[in-house]
Design goal:
Length: 563
């Protein structure tokens, strides 16, 4: 196919062009209508671009190598589909939103970075794309402009910058060891580098921020509830997966760093269980879903860690890709369901809740659902019986957490809402949920390494059923005893950290007041200087200025890496 080699370039260029179109005077008030067009190039590329055929773009980002293999094509495909559905959903949900052109422009820049992560074959393109995802999505988080959104944005951008700094240093160590910018060369060279351990630690921290690996997870339960619902869907379903994908393609899997793999597995399993416990203590439906995402990404991270200790890691990584794709679609659908329920009358609500319940059960691993197949494939790649049991038992926690979500989201139904939600709200939700249920059936032999008939085996059915039966029993017992979970604020450990920071600032101010009368020290001049810095910060926060600075920062990063 003639267009095949051009499809990766089209996939990246399309959202950037559409983002620029949103700035045209004639489109500014209707810019949201452009959102569904932006991911179409990525979707076409995932289906039509040949695998393992690199595309060279010497004039893009000072030179870029793009391409797809089976896993990256899957990530590209499900992410593009989710961005498409979220864009359609936004037509009805955000018709009267504030600053539609700004939202559209940064939505498209985030999308381009998200797709670029999956297409990149060289570290410079990967890093620039990853930075675009991290920095541009900040605007999606703070779009509503409320104090809650701004607080979430502050936490998010702090961790995002930390993650980017760790990745930059880690990539530089890897590129120096490989004497190459190709990701495959860097991955192979890191294991033999004298700075191997610092490089791996930096990469795990950098990718762990995006993937929500504890204790780097605190931005998710703050950002997801604060962002508009379509943005929440792509944050959890697609953007978080950039961190998972980074772990998959950069972590050495030749069996030489088993200790690091075991450490990542332990961290992933701890994240899986702690995410459930923290999520059960939430009252906001989006916060519950955010902690569920943290928990599920912990499981995927554990699988990647297990692959790092295996002599044949490819099957485990393929199974992790299948699991991540199902989660991305299912969790995207559940986030969209928040907006659907809010627009649904009580008569139509049971039908909506039925779709939500089926999708939630799929995430929990109900046998014969897409999630059940994905979890079966993932467990089948774990060589350790104890770890396999721990992963199976995690389904109980997932079921409890999503039961909690079903309970709290049902309370969001408004008696004033229309009886049936708008088609552009309902259709993307149902389509995304349907894709989550069906896709693993299609991909199971190639990515799971098992035949479809294996899903019907009695042992497989029992392995998937007993954790859910246990969750049902625990739920019944909790209702019978009238047990209530404690309330933990969204962001959990970030709250005491904020209090400590505020106490430190107050202490500094009190100290400054005591020094006001000290000879030779002009405190008033110092404070006026701080006021000047605040005015500069306010000017930089304007989207027109921050957007130009963001573009300049991305180009500067590209120059640094290429230099």
């Amino acid at each position: 196919m003639i267009a095949g080699p051009l499809l990766p370039l089209i996939a990246l260029a399309a959202p950037l062009v559409i983002g620029l179109l949103a700035a045209l005077p004639m489109m500014r008030d209707r810019a949201i209508r452009l959102l569904p067009l932006a991911p179409l190039g990525g979707l076409a590329c995932a289906f039509l671009s040949p695998l393992d055929a690199d595309t060279q773009a010497p004039d893009m980002l000072l030179g870029a190598t793009l391409g797809l293999d089976a896993s990256s094509a899957l990530f590209l495909g499900f992410s593009s589909f989710l961005w498409l559905m979220a864009g359609l959903f936004a037509q009805a949900y955000m018709g009267d939103t504030r600053k539609p052109a700004v939202f559209t422009g940064f939505w498209c820049l985030t999308l381009a970075g998200n797709l670029g992560v999956f297409l990149a074959r060289d570290v410079a393109t990967f890093y620039v794309s990853f930075a675009a995802v991290s920095l541009a999505s900040y605007i999606l988080v703070v779009h509503e402009g409320t104090e809650r959104a701004l607080r979430a944005g502050r936490v998010y951008i702090t961790l995002a910058v930390l993650g980017e700094a760790c990745l930059l240093v880690g990539f530089m160590i890897g590129a120096n060891a490989a004497e190459s910018l190709l990701i495959a060369d860097i991955r192979a060279a890191i294991a033999g580098s004298p700075l191997r351990d610092p490089a791996l630690a930096l990469l795990i921290v950098g990718f762990g921020v995006k993937a929500g690996l504890m204790p780097l997870h605190v931005w998710l339960p703050l950002a997801h509830p604060a962002a508009p619902t379509p943005a929440s869907a792509v944050l959890s379903g697609a953007i978080v997966k950039a961190g998972i994908f980074g772990l998959m393609v950069f972590m050495p899997v030749d069996g030489t760093i088993a200790a690091t793999g075991l450490g990542l597995t332990a961290a992933g399993l701890a994240t899986a269980y702690l995410g459930v416990l923290l999520g059960l203590a939430q009252a906001n439906p989006k916060a519950v879903l955010a902690y569920s995402t943290i928990s599920q990404m912990g499981l995927v991270s554990a699988a990647i860690g297990a692959a790092m200790t295996s002599e044949n890691p490819a099957p485990a990584l393929l199974a992790a890709s299948l699991y991540a794709s199902h989660h991305g679609l299912a969790k995207g659908a559940l986030f969209l369901s928040v907006g659907v329920v809010a627009a649904t009358g009580r008569r139509f609500l049971p039908l909506v809740l039925a779709v939500i319940a089926l999708t939630a059960l799929s995430v929990a691993g109900l046998p014969l659902t897409g999630g059940g197949l994905a979890k079966t494939a993932l467990k089948g790649q774990l060589d350790d019986a104890l770890i396999e049991t721990i992963v199976a038992l995690s389904a109980t926690g997932t079921a409890l957490l999503l039961a909690r979500y079903l309970f709290v989201v049902a309370g969001q139904c408004s008696s004033d809402a229309a009886e049936r939600p708008a088609a552009l709200l309902l259709a993307p939700f149902i389509a995304t949920a349907g894709a989550a249920l069906i896709l693993p059936w299609i991909l199971l032999p190639g990515f799971g390494g098992i035949a479809r008939g294996y899903a019907f085996a009695p042992g497989t059915l029992w392995t998937g059923f007993w954790p859910l039966a246990l969750a049902l029993a625990i739920t019944g017992l909790a209702f019978a005893l009238k047990l209530r979970a404690p309330r933990i604020p969204e962001g959990d450990i970030v709250v005491p950290l904020e209090h400590a920071a505020q106490a430190a600032v107050s202490g500094i101010r009190r100290g400054a007041e005591r020094l006001r009368d000290a000879p030779g020290l002009d405190i008033d001049r110092l404070l006026s200087g701080l006021d000047g810095l605040e005015r500069v910060e306010a000017r930089l926060a304007r989207w027109s200025v921050s957007g130009l600075l963001l573009i300049g920062l991305v180009l500067a990063i590209a120059l640094a890496l290429r230099g």
